[in-house]
Amino acid sequence: MVxxxxxxxxxxxxxxxxxxxxxxxxxxxxxxxxxxxxxxxxVEQKQVRPMLLVDDRALPDFKGIQTSDPNAVVIxxxxxxxxxxxxxxAFRLLLDGAPLIAIHKARYYKRKxxxxxxxxxxxxxxxxxTDTKATVVGKPEKTxxxxxxxxxxxxxxxxxxxxxxxxxxxxxxQNAGMRGILxxxxxxxxxxxxxxxxxxxxxCESFPHAVDHILQHLL
Length: 219
What we know:
This protein has two domains: 1-154, Rossmann fold, CATH 3.40.50; 155-218, 3-Layer(aba) Sandwich (Rossmann fold), CATH 3.40.50. It is of the alpha/beta class. The model has no long low-confidence stretch (mean pLDDT 94). The protein is 34% helix and 18% strand. The chain has helices at residues 13-22, 35-46, 84-95, 120-130, 142-149, 166-175, 207-218; strands spanning 4-6, 32-34, 50-53, 72-75, 100-102, 108-111, 114-117, 135-136, 160-163, 179-183, 202-204. The two termini are 12 Å apart. It is built from seven helices and eleven strands.
């Protein structure tokens, strides 16, 4: 049983599915669980009208959600929206009592031109300015990993998470009761494995190495 879990807010689940299929992944939409899905679920549960600070390509995942006259703030990775006027609008909504929903709080992410600021610093700025605390729905939240497992018939202790982010992927998964394998690709930085406690179950050079370990030692 495989699940692809991601904090990406740069594209909708459908766009992500198409991109993975172009890379020749044999994958169906129900095998993908995103933090956008988790955020939409929370918005519907709270019955709020969000100001959506997300990439325009992620908006299809919020289709049908009422956003006029917002009374909540949902923030993901949205570089084109992270400027003073928009952030100040969000700030004022929060001061009026609107809840702050963070799709995730990653410190940074990997782009083709190098590392770049993630949504975490902007979420933290709004928290600091309004003396409030965001509800975080994506990795590394325990509820995110458990929700991703729902419907698989698998328990956390029967599950392995493979990722390149020591805190959000590996640390979050291990806090949920899973084994975590850190791969030294993507956004990995030297000595990342020393930044979490407990340390990763395993650190591998690449994703194929992690898969080989699972096939040889865990099945």
